[in-house]
Amino acid sequence: MTDTSPLSAGTAAMTGPRGAKPKTRLSRRNIFLYGTLLLISVYYLLPLYVMVVTSLKGMPEIRMGNIFSPPVEVTFQPWVKAWSEACTGINCDGLSRGFGNSVRILIPSVALSITIASINGYALANWRFKGSEVFFTILIIGAFIPYQTMLYPIVILLREIGLMGSVWGLVLVHTVFGMPILTLLFRNYFTSMPEELFKAARVDGAGFWGIYFRIMLPMSLPIFVVAMILQVTGIWNDFLFGVIYTKPATYPMTVQLNNIVNSVQGVKEYNVNMAATLLTSLVPLVIYFVSGKLFVRGIAAGAVKG
């Protein structure tokens, strides 16, 4: 029997609690860890801080030379000029036209590439057919082919089908180039799902599309968010395809930003350049911050398993 006498209780109180000594928050290890994280954060956030404060200054204040000082007099005129007045070649309507073009390119490219890739991944994971492994291998190889080797053949292809220089031609390019990596993500995600769900649905008489829409899609929100963030970031920030496969009237936002920043005529307006850069980066940042938790869940739930 356990001794519960007052003497034994007093002895236990005198000896104190047993176990490992709790670690202090200001230990040498924590100071080093959080100090390192703080330095890395400052390293990455300092350029963003410089961009923001510079975009809120007038040119006389910028010429004083202290780029780290906050603005003495805040002005949003650089943002207005970057959006609607800055010259991008022969046009002086700012980034507004490029923003509209980028949205017209982004929405169908993301929708088409994710839809087709999710069906491909579902078929490769659950409906094995003759030659499926060969098809999947070809897709994986396509993910590692340098874009530069295919620029000119795609120019010829788009010219022959009448889409060279158009928004839909660039939509087609982004859809095709996003297919390999997205198919890999969806295939690995669907493979990580319990196989019993698929077998039970087959026993109940569900077919290809019934299983896809009623079982796979409701359980696949995290991986769809992962695919959306990857595609939105890649397509919105693309410059190479935009400058090659479109024309000035359909240039995306990144191409117009390049024309503003690299203009060699007139005064170099650094505040306008910084404001234009921030405006161009807003869409991917907003989407990531809104759906960041689902992005992490999708990665952790099998997006990179294989």
Structure summary, number of beta strands: 0
Annotated CATH homologous superfamily of one domain: MetI-like
- Major sheet summary line: none
The CATH topology of one domain corresponds to MetI-like fold
Mean pLDDT: 83
Shape: flat
* N-to-C SSE string, H for helix and E for strand: HHHHHHHHHHHHHH
CATH C-level label of one domain:
Mainly Alpha
Helix content: 55-70%
> Structural class of the helix and strand makeup?
mainly alpha
Poorly predicted regions are none
Radius of gyration: 28 Å
What is the CATH architecture term of one domain? Orthogonal Bundle
How large a portion of the residues is in β-strands, by DSSP E? under 5%
Number of helices: 14
Give the distance, in angstroms, between the N- and C-terminal Cα atoms.
56 Å
Descriptive account of the structure:
69% of the residues lie in helices and 0% in strands. The model has no long low-confidence stretch (mean pLDDT 83). It has a domain at 97-252 and 281-303: MetI-like (MetI-like fold). The longest helix is centred in the C-terminal third of the chain and has 34 residues, at 270-303. The chain is mainly alpha-helical. It is flat, with a radius of gyration of 28 Å. It contains 14 helices and no strands. Helix 2 crosses helix 14, helix 5 crosses helix 13 and helix 11 packs antiparallel against helix 14.
